[in-house]
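Blinded run. Sample ID left blank on purpose so nobody reads anything into the name before looking at the predicted structure. Input follows.
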Amino acid sequence: MAYLVCKKCAGYYELREGESPKDFDKCQCGGSLRYVETINVKKFGLSSKNMIRISGVLFGASIILIPYYLFSPIPSSASFVLNHIDSFILWSTGGFAAALIAGGKIINGASNGLYSAIISGLIVIIIFYLLLVNSFNNPSFTDNIAFFAALSVIYILIPAIFSIIGGLIGISIRKGLNKLI
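Blinded prediction complete.
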């Protein structure tokens, strides 16, 4: 087996049969590649590149959670989401931060923002649902699905739109900075 290892992000690519190291000029992060015959890869370990992406997404999710903490007077009040312009700014900032930290291609910027919004939204929905589940008298399966769908629009879909936009802006800025450096 032969591999190309990035000097910048430590990511690696296993060359397939018929591929040559000369077929690749640089890593998707912009780093230069070096050819190695063997590599010490843990079968179930995460590469440093994936760890950086996970860290970026979790950091973005924590930023997206800020408006829920700051502006929600009570857990059953979902109207706060649309009443504060700061919510929209922080959702965009969460996607921006996730993309800026994680890097990658343009599609990665959008997906990093989306993943941050999904993670933060699910956290809020789970906490929200657990707090409110006792106020319903034996909800049916259909009631639970309808409740989850309504909360998903407020806590996942709307923040995701702004977070994706922030992610696209963040990845564009990161690509511009990489070109300058």
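Unblinding after everyone has recorded impressions. The helical segments are 48-71, 80-83, 85-102, 106-132, 141-180.
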